[in-house]
Amino acid sequence: MTRLPDPATAMFAEAAEAPEAVARLLATNGELLAELGDTLRALAPRAVMTCARGSSDHAATYLKHLVETRTGVLVTSVSPSVASVYRAAPVAEQALAIGLSQSGKSPDLLAAMRAAADAGARTLALVNVADSPLAQQSDAVLPLSAGPERSVAATKSFIAMLAGSAALVAVWTQDSALRGAIDALPERLERAWECDWSALVDALAEARGLYVIGRGPGFGVAQEAALKCKETCGLHAEAFSAAEVRHGPMALVGPDFPLLVFRQDDASAAGIDALVADALGQGARVLVASDGAVPRGATWLPLPLADATLVPIAAVQAFYRAANALSVLRGFDPDRPPHLRKVTETV
Asked: How far is CA 184 from CA 20, 62, 163, 275, in A?
């Protein structure tokens, strides 16, 4: 199978800039990250609250996994409407509230972060627009440094948010191995961009729906891929953990209902492989993004070798290129999805 042509869109151009964006984030924020690591160890938060919408909330899912598995600190996603609509405040003493956003402008996000601060939480913003309202009202800011995005579909800013999340946890836990893997991430992203995912474009060209599956660090990326299928390709997609999909949703899986699976070689791999085998047994087309072997009968979407924690970041980079091609093939403009705009200011 030959690679399908890449439509010249802003989504394509901006996603292609992700390796440079991550390299810039790491190069310009080295001292700041070290200071944030010191601050987090001194703070020793009893809980972490994340506040985000859309793609940023998917990055928060990734951050939650890293914090809970590497620090043991409980992480919960705060519903912004609790503060902005229902005027309630969390119990947030000795907590860290992290706001994740590309624009840092959404009123409900700002209200939720103010409520957390008023309730005693320390606040941290992971935000692309460094002088945004979210940055200005937060105790600390980690600028994502991804640069402006014109396409409605966020790409490089999402990848920078994932990389920033991983870097934050690495300095918090003083994990030199993870930090070394993060330093190599821009090169891994360059290699992921060159991976041939034409099989995904071919498989989903006429599809009406699919499940996107991930687990552990891959679940947030599965959520993001499902959103992009809807947003840019007019393709209904639902994201599930590899465990949750067995609780009912597997009834839909079959010859006319494909699966896109994100796999990393960690403790979740055996469960992912068992799920893939079961889906293949039900006659489904299963596409597996992996930097290693995949079960016989599945369609392999190749990825460069990387630390298992960072494989999902490389995977979403490869996915963005394929999603851009799939969007145009299905008759859509990924830069201007219907009924959407770049900055969504929900209340």
From this structure: 12, 19, 11, 31
